[in-house]
Description:
Layout: H1 7-17, E1 20-25, E2 31-34, E3 37-39, H2 49-70, H3 77-90, H4 92-96, H5 99-105, H6 109-115, E4 121-124, E5 127-131, H7 132-145, E6 176-177, H8 194-203, H9 206-213, E7 222-223, E8 226-227, H10 239-255, E9 260-263, E10 274-277, H11 285-299, H12 305-332, H13 337-368
Parallel strand pairs: 5-6
Antiparallel strand pairs: 1-2, 2-3, 4-5, 7-8, 9-10
Amino acid sequence: MTYSVSADGLALIQRHEGFRAEPAQLPDGNWVVGFSHVRVGEPGAPLDHAEAAALLAIDVAPTERLVNARVTQSLTQSQFDALVSFAFSVGGEAFEQSQVLRRVNAGDFVTAACAMDAWRKSDVGGELEVVDTLIGRRAAEKALFLKDMAIDAAPSVFVRAKLDHAASILGAPAKYAAAPAVGSVPVVQPKPEPVVRLVEILKSEPQTEALLLTQVVADDVVEDDEIVTAHAKPVARSLDEVREATRRSYAATQAGEGAKVRFSWFKRARSNKIEIVMPKPNVDRRLRKQRRQSVFNVANIDFGGPFENAGLIALLVFGFALLALGGSLLLGGSGEAIEMIAGAAVATPGLAAVLMAVFGLRRPQSAQA
């Protein structure tokens, strides 16, 4: 069965959406007018109450189709009106994922009505806060949803209400925020494209701006690489010419000579050509240092090697001397315990010194390999 929102349902939506005759700008740059009708781009003309009501009926139509498509249980008119108002408030995607829809399709209408109370927060100043107007709207939608349901009477002296701690979380003390006025939130300005931002930075310099605004001379006014008009204008060069000029400049720099570049693209009153002599480029000191280091690396020069090797060789000789002394104490003694301990005490440092020297002498070879 297909349902349509009634006049009572539209009246509920109108009451909580609020009427605006004059368009007000939204944070995304669009405009809202009437009963939550959005205009994209331009604010447009004001609306009267009848025009706004007609637009609201058009805007609510997609929500009506959504509720009809997603609800699988039979509904009363008041239940359908309440669900349309709820879905119009939270949005179609949120309604499809909500516990309200799940409980309705399960046939648990009381739980579905209570699940509406959870949707009471909104983005206020960049933070999610409980909004008092949403609390009132959820209460109205909940009451409308339960309007036609049968009421089982029970005396309070017999069925005394007790605190439900799970449900009391919704009523716990919280920071309640008033709904911000439409138009009070500033419009978010879109970030400029990188190319546009780069052009703005280049235009900040007067010389660069003048070059950007200069027009390229057409081919029909150029003869023999010179401009024949009365005013001098730069002529666009091809990519091959730019590469060739760069190659010549680099070759001249490597040879240690100053590069002279002649520009024949300008002409003044009597066909005088301008000659610009570019000075010898300054080579960065850090670049020269890196080049020297690269030459040293290629030649495999290690200035610290000989001194380090000499120390290792001396350590090796010292270790062998200790080993010889310890061996003489162990082998040439009378075999007493004190002589063996002394020999071992002398030979052990000698063995350590020999091993350290051998390891130090072999390390540069392995690193070079």
